[in-house]
Specification:
Elements: H1 3-16, H2 18-24, E1 32-37, E2 42-45, H3 47-52, H4 75-88, E3 93-102, E4 105-117, E5 124-133, H5 135-146, E6 150-154, E7 160-163, H6 165-170, H7 191-204, E8 206-215, E9 221-232, E10 239-248, H8 250-261, E11 265-271, E12 277-282, H9 284-289, H10 294-297, H11 309-324, E13 332-337, E14 343-354, E15 360-369, H12 373-407, H13 421-448, H14 450-453, H15 458-477, H16 481-501, H17 509-556, E16 563-566, H18 567-577, H19 579-584, E17 588-592, E18 599-602, H20 604-620, E19 632-640, E20 643-652, H21 657-661, H22 686-696, E21 700-707, E22 720-729
Parallel strand pairs: 17-19
Antiparallel strand pairs: 1-2, 1-5, 3-4, 4-5, 6-7, 6-10, 8-9, 9-10, 11-12, 11-15, 13-14, 14-15, 16-18, 19-20, 20-22, 21-22
Helix pairs in contact: 12-17, 13-15, 13-16, 13-17, 15-16, 16-17, 17-20, 18-20, 20-22
Amino acid sequence: MKTQEKENLKEEVIEASRDFYQCTLPGNLPIGVYLITKDGDFVRCNSKVRHILKLPQNGEDVNANINDYYWDTGERERMLKELEEAEARGGCLEKKVILFKVNGQKIWVQDYSRSVKAPRTGEIIGYAGCLVDVTDEESHHQMFDKLPVGVYKLDAQSKIVRVNKAFADILGYEKPSELERIQIKELYVDPGEARRFDKLIMEQGFVVNEKVELFKKNKERCYISVCSYKKMDTDGVTYIGREGTIQDVTDEENYRQIRDSIPVGTYMVGKNDQGEDVISQCNKAFADMFEYNMKDILGIEVKKVYASEKDYEDFIKEITERYNKHEITEGIPIRAKTAKGQIIPLDVYCRILPDGAGKITGRAGIVINTSNMVALRELRDDIGKTLHFYSTALVTLEQAIKPVLKALGPDIFGTNEMLTIEKAIEAIKEPVRNLKNAVSKLVELKNKSPERRDALPDEDWNTLENQMKFLDEYQTRTPYPEFQVAALHNSSGTVLDIYDKMGKGIFLRDLIRDFFNKAKELERVCCLIKIHQALDTIVEVDYSIRAFREYVIFQQRPPDLPTICKISTLIQTAVYQLHLFAQQRRVEIVQEYQSCQAQVKVDERSVLRALSNLLYNAIKYSWHREIGKKPWINIKAVSFHNEVHVEFQNYGVPIAKEEIDNDLIFKFGYRGKYSGDRQRMGTGIGLTDARETARNHGGDVTIKSFPASGEDEYDYSKPFLTTAVFKLPIYQLK
């Protein structure tokens, strides 16, 4: 645009905004006021705008364009579009926070603006607005949102006013706004702890590193360390809420609980001000071992818990020599002395803690009371018998439950497959609907007849009406399907209790009979579901216990002599052992291993156990692929160079990438983060045992898990294809 045209446009903008110009621009207002053309050229602005944008303070003309101050060049265009939409609704653009650059520095401004239109044509020829420097406020706001610890603010009624992103992340929420207006006590696992915390805040005024247990969004529990203080109004008397920070200490708390619950003593030794070795940390088992209270043993000089000073000196000499030789300091026998003077034998396993110069400053480790080792070995050897007892008890329980199923007949569910929660919920819909209608008819009759109203106390009528509403709304009142059966079972029981209180001859016999029958039918179906679920659990747990028992016994007995056998025969035996579990889970096993002629020389019993573990996992974690078709898994055996690879592939529960990359899934006792899908159970030793067995025979176990659709590898809400490969060297005839 030519210079003269620009000047003409500026005059036109001034003329169209004369009232605004005369009322706001000349004064020394505490906020910035400006007029610009539609292209962004400044027409006029007051001294506050000049100060914010570092413009010359003298003279009316401003040779600048507002577009040059936007840090994001596209932000201006987006802002004008928002203004257009706001004005179409009869409003203007308020409190728009924008990032500006002034002399190369970032500043945040808050803009309030409206368009300036030509009086005759109505065409937008410029913009009038107010500008406020909010750099300090926005910096605090961004710091609040970006702090790596959770920050929160509550009102006087303990409702959440605001939290930052870290707070939401800790509790598993996607956005901080999801938590706003929630009562803080709703997040507590124990509501009594919420009341105790409130009392502590009111009495002390603040708390530091107070540990509480909260629910995450997915109902998982976590431990939080809270720092908080109460806020008072300007009168110094009225309580207006509290603010504070939280940190996730779940891992630390779990480790602490594990440390305090394990039956061996853990400890750390450090130096006191006099340079003496003292016990700086220990668990309860350590204190109990030495017959001390926790508060009394911390800080005690270490040599006092040894049988004699010579015993202590001999121990220090031993661990120092081992440390200097870079040898492991474990299994060192010592004679210790308890607080009551009793001498006990201990084995010490410790790690030396040197400073930066290599000087020993302390140590950490565990102690085991070896006087109990004989009893411990007997207990360990007896685990196999104990697990056998549990396995036998499960079989007995299964046989006892089946007659109960028959007595509750007719059984609307099949007995040869797992009862899914989806199938259970579908089957229960009609009995629920029928009972709701029966209760509704009874309530309607009561409302029409005063004499029938007197058949029950008002509280029982109110209960019936509440049950009628619950039966109509149970899916929304109990959103988790896993809990709906239990809730409906309770509801049918409540209705039947009221039936027992009804007088005879007051209501029509057919109506009462229908009311009773519908309640009994809902109760019967709920009982059927629960019994089927119990049977499903027995089938699943039975194999887990038998596999665990086999693993424990294997650790205690010498390995069998290796035998030469076909890998296909071992696989077929594993399939035979698990056919009942596969049938119960309605999983079809696709067998592509019979043609493999590879032979292996192995401890047959342990390899069979390992193959069964992998097959069990494949069955347990399978999902349906298509509606109306059984889920299926695939077993292959192929020769590859000098190895035979047995592949177990299933479609269903994912394994997280980091769990595979970091070998977490092979850790003893570890269960994957998604292994609890649909309440699946397990011990966390199957993969550990399988890989140990394979490696003991010169082979290995590998796992791959990727999206079945081939899409986002981190979207664990969708089915994955998981392949476990058991590798063994092929036996070559010499």
